[in-house]
């Protein structure tokens, strides 16, 4: 008998019929004797409908009122799902973020959870009820309704699982797990039975959009086993947890992540003096542009070359900012390229295996793919290459690191 | 400088455009220096949309969850109206029933208000804010969301006005006040400048649907001056308050109310023994049928005739119930008629004027209208007549009691 927190997203509860499917699924867990806490998002389309109403009223709606407005979306779903469960003879009770007391700070539209009061959930579970909680929302110390920002329902699920010391937080979504890479690029990609928090974080930040990064961070921090499953098909999904104790069990590489929407900017001939990096990146971040990779070459001739990448949408904006800065700095030239992409290999196994990076470079070289930038972490090697080589790079790496083989069934 | 509670119903906030009109109206009061607390309903159609979702899930949805669901309707409106006010430079803050703590009992879908915590409203008003409160909803001592039942937003408005000792509770609706009778029946009907709580209660219970009876009772009990106005046109509306101290100021009759949807049932030849009335009406009320007028004639021959009226929709159902009862009682016969109507004259002035009832009967006799039943209260005389005479009766009484004349402007 376990305690599960199960989170269902907007498409999983997008219609009365689908809410019924979710109710059946939850009931089947309950019937097996498990305790179940369900976290739901707004029905798909509802949040956008509400935001559209607000934008008809104001270009910059009051954030406090925006949260009061948007939070009704999840409230509708918790009530409907609880009704559907009760209708199936499975006693259920709904809670808004304010009712269960998901305490957050007062940063409207992007609040962070500070504490969850689980007493009422525990006593409901004891009486055999399924508890249905509105995701994405909370309440600040003054009782104002807050929201956690888009995708925040995953965070609600993980935070609840942590507060309740749940056995597993199950995130139901429209994919049936985490894959070695995107199956649309490499048809031989396979679902991973398990992956570590760290790997999942690297996969997510490298462009694999299965889970919100924040919820994975949270799960890792509180060691909440996270399982990604499909709400439409049966299956065991992918378990995201701490790494196995026996490093021999770890595959060297778990997956290949990639990101198409990149652009790079290089400032050539920058004087090699302290503070140059911040003098270049300060104005970029002041312009609200997020920087991804940063590379600075070893100085020669008392000047250096400084390169970084940004989201492709910010390319024109960042060029303007940097050209001004380069002039001020007396740099030689600014170059940019918005036809690049990033490909990363991710795996905790690479810690104990030398030569992973060089195997990656060899593989790309064998396909005559030129590497423009390299960035590494303990469990990741990322390279920037021309966008036209993306599929070729992903497929050849997928094969070179032995990911094409059949998954081992546990 | 006064404190107004202003309540706007579903049609008044039925679109973003109309919410803008309401915001303009509220702001103009605020700009005059008045304190304003606004109570709003769900946008028209929204409550029915939510109820339809629930009925797709269950024929008998869990009442607690129904309230959690339906209460989102008003929450959307308070957020949108507050945004619209802020957008106009009129600082505003929204509160759900749970946030402001409108404490109710736990009778889901038909809860009653027990207490309102007005501290946060007062401190918001002090800082110059307009306070926007969700009507129709509250929270029980356990923190469950409750609703007051249909039309409950009027009650919220009156209860808030009472708790705040407001100078006036203004109910904005789609009519511009209370009329001497329904203008669709008598085009010479005129708007009343004022009317007493008691008269309004009789008008409402006799079929005039401007306000919910419960909110009028509430206003009378706490002596909250109530004003009915149109949210679409300018005007002073009708003030509902305690009666003037000088009875000479009171018109004899304030209005003519009527109700088409009536049916009557007569049990003839009932044994005249104690307990007969309850033996007839007990099963009727057990069948959940509401009884309106009840008349029992003086006994002759040790038997009596017993007549009562019900809503026309209940006619077939009540006949079946009563025929069984009549057989058990040994009554002679059961007769029914579902082509009747009720017409009432209402006015506090009739207390001090003899002959009002006889003037009514004379007027009807002059038109050869046969009176089938009579029922009186201190400030009302109601008669049951054949439905075909309804318009004729209303018009002749309207004229006979001098209601056709022009309203006296104050």
Automatic annotation (TrEMBL), chains A, B:
GO BP terms in the entry: homoserine biosynthetic process; lysine biosynthetic process via diaminopimelate; threonine biosynthetic process
One matching Pfam family: ACT
Chain residues that bind substrate: 47, 74
E.C. no: 2.7.2.4
Ligase among keywords: no
Record-listed ATP binding positions: 7-10, 173-174, 179, 184, 209-210
GO MF, one example: aspartate kinase activity
Annotated NCBIfam families: asp_kin_monofn, asp_kinases, PRK06635.1-2, PRK06635.1-4
Transmembrane stretches, start-end: none
GO CC annotation, single: cytosol
CDD domains hit by this protein: AAK_AKii-LysC-BS (cd04261), ACT_AKii-LysC-BS-like_1 (cd04913), ACT_AKii-LysC-BS-like_2 (cd04936)
UniProt enzyme class: transferase
Name of the protein in question: Aspartokinase
Keywords: Amino-acid biosynthesis, ATP-binding, Kinase, Lysine biosynthesis, Nucleotide-binding, Transferase
Involved pathway(s): Amino-acid biosynthesis; L-threonine biosynthesis; L-threonine from L-aspartate: step 1/5; Amino-acid biosynthesis; L-lysine biosynthesis via DAP pathway; (S)-tetrahydrodipicolinate from L-aspartate: step 1/4; Amino-acid biosynthesis; L-methionine biosynthesis via de novo pathway; L-homoserine from L-aspartate: step 1/3
């Amino acid at each position: 008998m376990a305690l599960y927190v199960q989170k269902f997203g907007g498409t999983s509860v997008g219609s009365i019929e689908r809410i019924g499917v979710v109710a059946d699924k939850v009931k089947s867990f309950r019937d097996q004797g498990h305790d179940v806490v369900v976290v739901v998002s707004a029905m798909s389309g509802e949040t956008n409908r509400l935001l559209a109403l607000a934008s008809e009223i104001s270009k910059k709606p009051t954030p406090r009122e925006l949260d009061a407005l948007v939070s009704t979306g999840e409230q509708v779903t918790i009530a409907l799902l609880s009704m559907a469960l009760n209708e199936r003879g499975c006693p259920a009770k709904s809670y808004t973020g304010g009712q269960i007391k998901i305490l957050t700070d007062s940063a409207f539209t992007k609040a962070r959870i500070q504490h969850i009061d689980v007493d009422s959930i525990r006593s409901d579970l004891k009486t055999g009820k399924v508890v249905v909680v509105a995701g994405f929302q909370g309440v600040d110390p003054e009782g104002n309704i807050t929201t956690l920002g888009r995708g925040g329902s995953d965070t609600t699920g993980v935070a609840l699982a942590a507060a309740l010391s749940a056995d597993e937080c199950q995130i139901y979504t429209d994919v049936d797990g985490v894959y070695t890479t995107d199956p649309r690029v490499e048809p031989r990609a396979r679902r991973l039975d398990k992956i570590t928090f760290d790997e999942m974080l690297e996969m997510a930040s490298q462009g694999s959009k299965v889970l919100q990064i924040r919820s994975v961070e949270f799960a890792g921090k509180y060691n909440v086993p996270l399982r990604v499953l499909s709400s439409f098909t049966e299956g065991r999904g992918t378990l995201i947890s701490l790494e196995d104790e026996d490093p021999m069990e770890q595959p060297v590489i778990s997956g290949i992540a990639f990101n198409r929407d990149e652009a790079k900017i290089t400032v050539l001939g920058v004087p090699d003096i302290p503070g140059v990096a911040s003098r270049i990146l300060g104005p970029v971040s002041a312009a609200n542009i997020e920087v991804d990779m940063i590379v600075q070459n070893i100085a020669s001739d008392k000047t250096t070359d400084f390169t970084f990448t940004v989201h492709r949408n910010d390319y024109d904006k960042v060029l303007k900012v940097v050209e001004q800065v380069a002039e001020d700095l007396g740099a030689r030239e600014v170059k940019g390229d918005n036809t690049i992409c990033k490909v990363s290999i991710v795996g905790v196994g690479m810690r104990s295996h030398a030569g992973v990076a060089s195997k990656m470079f060899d593989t790309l070289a064998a396909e005559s793919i030129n590497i423009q930038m390299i960035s590494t972490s303990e469990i990741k090697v990322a390279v920037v290459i021309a966008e036209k080589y993306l599929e070729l790079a992903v497929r050849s790496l997928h094969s070179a690191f032995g990911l094409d083989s059949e998954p081992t069934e546990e």
